[in-house]
Amino acid sequence: MGSGVGPWDFGVWDLKFDLVIIGAGLSGLFAGCLAARRGKRALILARGLGGTHVGTGTIDVLSDLSSLDKRQTTADHPYSLAGPRALRAALDELKAICAEAGYPLHGDLKSNFRLPTAAGAARQTCLAPETMIAGDLSRPEPFALADLPGFRDFNAKFAISNLHASRLISNYQLQTIALPLPQPSTRRDAYATDLALLFDRADYREQLIEAWRPLLANAPKRIGLPAILGLDHAIEAKRHLDSALGVELFEIPILPPSVPGMRLFNLLRDDFQKHGGRIIIGPTASGHVVDKRAIVTADMNGRVRDYEAEVILLATGGFLHGGLTGEFEGRVRESVFNLPIAAPSTRADWISEVFLGPHPFAKFGARVNKQLHPLGADGKPLASNLRAIGSLLAGADRLSEGSREGIALATAYRAVELA
Predict the structure, then answer these.
(1) How confident is the model at residue 8 (pLDDT cuts 50, 70, 90)?
(2) I want to staple 21 with a disulfide (CB 3.0 to 4.6 A). Which of 218, 313, 388, 414 is the partner?
(3) How far is CA 101 from CA 53, 58, 95, 232, 235, in A?
(4) How would you label 246-271 residue by residue, b for 16+ Cβ within 10 Å and e otherwise?
(5) Residue 326: helix, strand or coil by DSSP?
């Protein structure tokens, strides 16, 4: 896949754009792809790479899809702001983009996949890449998990223990299979990205086939392994290994950096650039409003440029990605335009007593109207050309709901549609 535009590409700074997007996470990249495919001159400005590199590389719409209608009719919930048509259209368009890139996503809004996690739980997801779907826990066929000696970021025995303890698997006994990884010796632990680059190579896969074939002769026909099947050629790698070994391999997302998330980032970035979009990673963005029009100032190590555009999209994310920051005196701050963020003044009220339960801070974010215009302290749109999307929006506990990627896609689609 092609490389992104770096901070050294100063020619970008002299161009004019119809759409300026702040943030290179899933919502920002997807909005950029949509705009560029529709002939808009679009620019993405981002301090870093966004949330894709820490995500699972799947599209979670809602853990309980039967309650989707309720979310779409709940006032101020991002799904209500985007509308049901935007969500369906967004999923269809993302699937089309991924299919064109040779990395198809499978699934629909009728039902979720139940995919195992590295901790031995079940995760409900709407769309998943071909590299993961054979691990669906709804399937009755037995599977085993690969133990990769020397790879520390995935513990197959731990995952199996928790899968059994939670009664997610009851009709057969899971097992681990030690599968060696032929690779050059290194002076440090191997990361998932190191192994993914090896799996991209056909010659390395032939070494794997020779080493693994006798070990899998009497194994279940579904084999789970950490998400390392390749960065640029994951589908090719899976099909090659499946065919040669007579099994169905499936990936399980592990600790960041997320190989499946990196694939999705690379794919969307390349599609955006292929259709004329430009991206700068590195500058610090700040915003101000003049005569009800938003202007973005990008600072690249002292080289400063103002950007005006027909539409400016805030896609900077929530607390996790720097779109929101919490201050000690009990104030929550939005990082670019200093939008008002409603939050209790006592920080203890931001959290609940149950550590793994829902917390009030999860719903903090920018308030917007039906056109996704952020609202000022007076409840009126701050600027006519400013819109906010994705995890920056208030009103949803994305982690508890399992709605993070669905909200990112639906609100991005709606914003571009409005533009």
Answers:
(1) very low
(2) 313
(3) 19, 16, 10, 10, 11
(4) ebbbbbbbbeeebbbbbbbbbbbbbb
(5) strand
* Residue-level pLDDT at 14: 56
pLDDT at 348: 85
Rounded Cα distance between 255 and 192, Å, is 9
CA distance linking residue 144 with residue 220, whole number of Å: 6
Show the tokens assigned to 195.
């192994």
- CB atoms under 10 Å from CB of 138, counted, come to 10
Query: Is the peptide bond between 257 and the residue preceding it cis, with omega within 30 degrees of 0?
Result: yes
Amino acid (one-letter) located at 393: L
- For 142, half-sphere exposure in the C-beta direction (CA atoms, 13 angstrom radius) is 12
Q: Which of 340, 372, 285 is nearest to 20 (CA)?
A: 285
Cα pseudo-dihedral 347, 351, 352, 356, rounded to 10 = -150
CA distances from 296 to 19, 281, 282 (A): 11, 15, 15
172, 191 in Cβ contact below 8 A?
Answer: no
Of 360 and 297, more confident: 297
Cα distances from 401 to residues 120, 180, 351, 406, in angstroms, run: 19, 38, 17, 11
Asked whether residue 238 carries a pLDDT value surpassing 70, the answer given is yes
Task: From 402, 331, 285, 236, select the one nearest 24 (Cα to Cα).
Answer: 285
pLDDT digits (tens, 9 = 90+) for 99-142: 999 999 999 999 999 999 999 999 999 999 999 999 999 999 99
Q: How far is CA 376 from the centre of its chain?
A: 29
Please name the residues in contact with 310: beta carbons below 8 A apart, sequence gap of 6 or more: 18, 19, 385, 419
Q: What is the DSSP string of 32-56?
A: HHHHHHTT--EEEEESS--GGGGS-
Predicted model pTM: 0.93
Q: How many distinct helices (H) and strands (E) make up the chain?
A: 11, 18
Q: Looking at this protein, which amino acid is placed at residue 294? A: A
Closest residue by Cα to residue 227 from 408, 54, 2? 54
pLDDT(2) > 60: no
pLDDT in tens, 191-205: 999 999 999 999 999
